[in-house]
Amino acid sequence: MSCFIHADLDAFYASVEQLDHSEYRGKPVIVGGLPGDRRSVVSTASYEARVFGVHSAMPVAEALRLCPQGIFLRGRMDRYREKSREIMAVFGSFSPDVQQLSIDEAFLDITGAQGLFGPPVALAKKLKERVRAETGLTVSVGIAENKYLAKIVSGLSKPDGLSALENGGGEAFMRALPVGKIWGAGPRTRELFEKHGLTTGEDLYRLSGKVLAAIFGDAMGLFLYRAVRGEAAAAFNEERGSRSMSAERTFAFDLYDTFAMETALFDICQDLMWRLLDCRWHSRTVSVKIRYGDFSTESGRKTFENPVRSFSELYERLLALFQQKYRSGRGVRLLGAGLMNLETQSARQGELFDGGTPQAEKERHLEEAILEINKKFPKAALRRGRSCLEDTWQKEFNH
DNA sequence: TCTGGGGTCCTAGGACCC
DNA sequence: TCTGGGGTCCTAGGACCC
């Protein structure tokens, strides 16, 4: 019988801040933005802050109203990533099969690990102890026969929780569960639950696959059909299909000046290009996202014959898409850009640089060299200057 | 109190081909 | 002459997750 653990750090960003700053301990810590930051939202609220009703995704301005005495912080992603690596290393010592889901949670397949660490609950206790001893953080753990159930179960007794579901108990557990606790059913689906008077897993269980598909759509219908029977969700399959990367920026005030918009796009484009060069993947499809002052959002994408070969080529493609999409005169709240259908180098070997001019080759080599320098000397960030689109690079010391 | 940023997956329609 | 059915690729938008 398979056995999985879902391990989830408690209020991760806020807990790291409380760990590093003893004066924050026992106090409401809110990571996401400073009180004056316009248009920022809460990433993580410590449990002390949650008492006031503060939660993730809430505008910082509202969090401030609910909890004026809170300690507001912008967050230090590098530090959180560092702690995350420490935690994942601890997980790795309990199972050779760790699937990281996000910065602060993972699945561990412990099917074969019990000879070494004892039964699942004993193993989970050891895991929690070691995470605490080695990283100073608490983790909530769920144990079940598949990943989906383990994920739901780990949320039952946060923070610092440990919950286990006995083998074969999945279906009964899911049938008794209020539909609001079904992982994977968000606000839109919950509206449909309400509209059709469905309040528990049992209500869903009584409906046929056909009816579920008619109400919720084919994919969500099938997902719910399987979920209330305690079956593993396909969403947690290891092999991933398409990949993408994106970067976006929300401005403190809406932009009306197209030069300012294009400068922002230029900046976003550099972020993307570094990441693309760094991961050594390739992409033929670029996308642009525009969110206007009224929050309406439009996007455009275009697939090219050849993958992006250089920064200036990426910017050219993004700029053309932006100019085609942007509705002149409207205030812009957010700009974003993305690369989709990423492929590994080997997947397209041979045709990669077909049609690439010697100029594009040179450009790419230059960019790869700059990437190397930036990696070696992270303090001296090299970036292209917006005003000089030719082959000039500008060095700025951002400190 | 106005609504972040980075992802994955799904849907629906159009173009095009057999 | 009054119109099929499937497959693939592409685009735009949306749901959902942390």
List the helices and strands and how they pair.
Elements: E1 4-9, H1 12-20, E2 29-31, E3 44-45, H2 47-50, H3 60-66, E4 71-73, H4 77-92, E5 98-102, E6 105-109, H5 114-117, H6 120-135, E7 139-144, H7 147-154, E8 162-164, H8 170-176, H9 187-195, H10 201-205, H11 209-216, H12 218-227, E9 245-255, H13 258-279, E10 281-282, E11 285-292, E12 297-303, H14 311-325, E13 332-340, E14 343-344, H15 358-376, E15 382-384, E16 393-395
Parallel strand pairs: 2-4, 7-8
Antiparallel strand pairs: 1-6, 1-7, 2-3, 5-6, 9-13, 10-14, 11-12, 11-13, 15-16
Helix pairs in contact: 4-6, 11-12, 13-14
The protein binds a DNA duplex (18 and 18 nucleotides) through helix 3, helix 9, helix 12, strand 9 and strand 12.
Structure description:
With 399 residues, the chain is of the alpha+beta class. The chain folds into 4 domains: 4-8 and 78-166, Reverse transcriptase/Diguanylate cyclase domain (Alpha-Beta Plaits, 2-Layer Sandwich); 12-77, MutS, DNA mismatch repair protein, domain I (3-Layer(aba) Sandwich); 171-239, 5' to 3' exonuclease, C-terminal subdomain (DNA polymerase, domain 1, Orthogonal Bundle), CATH 1.10.150; 245-395, DNA polymerase, Y-family, little finger domain (Dna Ligase, domain 1, 2-Layer Sandwich), CATH 3.30.1490. Helix content is 40%, strand content 20%. It is built from 15 helices and 16 strands. It has a 5-stranded mixed sheet. A 4-stranded antiparallel sheet has the order 9-13-11-12, covered by helices on one side. A 3-stranded mixed sheet has the order 3-2-4. A hairpin with an 8-residue loop joins strand 15 (382-384) and strand 16 (393-395). Helix 4 (77-92) packs antiparallel against helix 6 (120-135). It is globular. The model is unreliable at 348-355 and 388-393 (pLDDT under 50). It binds a DNA duplex (18 and 18 nucleotides) through helix 3, helix 9, helix 12, strand 9 and strand 12.
